[in-house]
Amino acid sequence: MTGDFLPEFKIVPAKGGGYLASYRLFDGVPFKLIPGDVKATAGQALNAAKDYVRQKLNPPIRREIAAKDVLGVQQWHEARAARQAEQQEQALGAIIVKGKQVKVERRRA
Fold first, then answer.
1. N or C: which end of the chain has fewer CB within 10 A?
2. Spatial distance between the Cα atoms of 18 and 39, rounded to a whole number of angstroms
3. Domain limits, the chain
4. How far is CA 13 from CA 42, 49, 69, in A?
């Protein structure tokens, strides 16, 4: 890279009215147009350029999303919660929800 790191923004008049935004990150490097539509005002074009550069320099952190539960952890948690609720009901005649006892009534149809 040549030159110093110096983010710089510039507006370019568009054909038919409006403005396009451009930027360069280093001194001595040509300006690049940002992708997108023509902006109505110069201020909107500059803000769009700043947002684009900010997003390019600071991308959002992504995490991998597992498509399936390989180890069966979710199933285990659900089964454990069901077992614990059953044990509480047998021992206390009620289950504990958010620290409070809730009486369980069973009705026969």
1. C
2. 5
3. 5-57, 73-103
4. 9, 14, 53
